[in-house]
Amino acid sequence: MVESRQIAAFVVLPVAFIGFISNWCVAIVIRRLSSMQNSFGMITTSQSIANAIHSSLFLFYYVPMLLFNIEILKTYSQYCGHMLLIAYDLSTYSHLAISLNRFCAIYRPVQYDKIFSKRNTFIIITISWMTAILPTFYLYIYADCRFPYLETFWAFVFTTTPICKTITLYADFLKYNTIVCMIVIIDLITVSKVRNFKHKVTGIVCQSHAKKRKSEINFLKQEIK
């Protein structure tokens, strides 16, 4: 008889597998495409790697742990949880960097190549990785806040120590909500600019077509006369 934890594993399995394949493929393909050897491609690759690591952990750690009830994986699940937090942080920071990249491409097209030069992009990616990795060793190891697998919910959850509650409030809930709000605002501003530009271009094209049509009609009238 299939147990509840195994059902949870079967539910996660296809999602993790698709995420594993698609994100690693994106990371590899971008590295090989000459047209993507730019700032946007570099940051997207970084995000794809983070997402791929996240999916890989679920595919090769979480799913077997639940499917075969492997106790040793449950015992050391806090380390998998730690890696999941790092991967999620990196993906979130990369998403913010991509939003800023698009914003600059639309609002500062002349300065874009200077702002997001390969050197600056490398610095941004390095900062993203360091910001995602280094603080976690203090927050989730030294500060006695863990993110292990909990059998009751078949999920990774934070421990309920007082310090962990504080950390999850500021370093998890408030941080992610702030970044997500920033991404949404930046993307909305960018999309708004693109829409306005599109309307202007459409208006110019329509005026050009109208002038051309009027000229053709005048020419036709002259021919008739």
Automatic annotation (TrEMBL):
The keyword Membrane applies. Residues 22-225 form the G-protein coupled receptors family 1 profile domain. It is found in: Membrane. This is G-protein coupled receptors family 1 profile domain-containing protein. It comes from the Eukaryota. One of its GO terms (cellular component) is membrane. The chain crosses the membrane at residues 6-30, 51-70, 122-143.
